[in-house]
Amino acid sequence: MTLQKRIGNWLKNSISAKMITVGFLILILLVPLGFVDDLIRERGQRQQEVISEINSKWGEEVIINGPILKIPYHQYIEEKVFDEKTKTFLKTEKAVRHEAYFFPDELDINSNVTTQPLERGIYKSVVYTSNSELKGTFSNPSFKELEVKDEDILWDKATIVYMVSNLKGIRNTVAINFNNQQYDLKPKFDNAYMNTLESDFIVNLEEIQNRTLDFESKITINGSNRLQYVPIGRETVVAMKSNWHSPSFNGNFLPDTEGKKISKNGFEAQWKVLETNRRFGQSFFDHLPDLTEFAFGTEFLVPVDDYQKTSRTSKYGFMIIGLTLLVFLLIQISSKISIHPFQYLMIGLALVLFYTLLISISEHKNYLFAYVVSGGAIVSLITIYSRSILKNTKFTLLVLGSMLGLYTFIFVIIQLEDYALLVGSIGLFVILATIMYTSRKIDWSGQLED
């Protein structure tokens, strides 16, 4: 027998040759599977770009810090001026203007948030409109910390300040009723992330500053993603109500467990933050720092979208392709049915096609519908194809059952979050045990035991 015939017989009859061929085909199929992963990632990035564009036009995340009482004051620095006549240096004092910022004693915020979807083509974003009512009190502003004299405090230049992250989204004229006097707040140019809204000078603050000062304000603002407040009150209480069903409470403080309600129709939550819960006091002098790191509130979380689910599904592509081709290989070895490498390749390409069908259908329907349709189409295609290859009803039903089991198993894992690893590990153990059991009678030298 010539060497060529011996090699041909080995490739035709050897189990090792068949396993090497199938393994090589699986490696080749990783190439189109990688292209599919890139496609899913690209479509997901495109979705995020469109959502970001929608949100930027409607209104991005909202952080509100205020109201804050701003009072200018003078401090003096010593200067030396040379006198030409006396040829000596004269000491003088120069007044330098600074600002003091005082936070309210009580700050009660009642926020009613209405969400709605915005669509552009096949992409969808969730945005909101928040109606926030802010009430509270200021106590006597104290300059004792700096020992500033009363005559150096510019009471007639005092104003009310709000710091807001998203001026574009504001939908009403922001005003504050301070000590029964109405003040409109106007924007001040600033390149900082938190934009400034400031009132006109407060009337008669020097005469009224020794008593408790009440305030009330309303802000209607469009936003997206998050709504947060900075707890600047000595006691800050925030109550939030919304029709959004999937809130994620984030920031530096979580809402109270009592009274928190989440249902498919919306949620209700309440926070209470005291001065002792924060790392800053009730006043700042000369400079108001960025306090957004202490903000808290709600992220209007979009549940795991279809691109994320499709991406997670594609990560199991290697396992599905490998196990499916392994089933055909075991059938071929145990039954002596001849399956050509080209037929293995066609089956593998059909399994890769499942993911392109899944992502394309899920862009127009939901993930469940897309998974059932694309999975059903691929299982049907391979089952019909295997019938023509195997020409045996028992083996065809085995292929059908194994594929239905695999796709069902993957779908269950995708739906789980906390138990995905546990269920996946148990499932893989069962699959491995099944393969070991069914292959126990195979004579790997090339014959099947009786």
Automatic annotation (TrEMBL):
Keyword Acyltransferase attached: no
Transmembrane intervals: 316-335, 342-361, 367-385, 397-414, 420-438
Organism, scientific name: Flagellimonas taeanensis
Pfam family, one: CreD
Protein name: Inner membrane protein
Organism domain of life: Bacteria
Keyword annotations of the record: Membrane, Transmembrane, Transmembrane helix
UniProt keyword Transmembrane helix present: yes
GO cellular component: plasma membrane
InterPro entries: Uncharacterised_IM_CreD
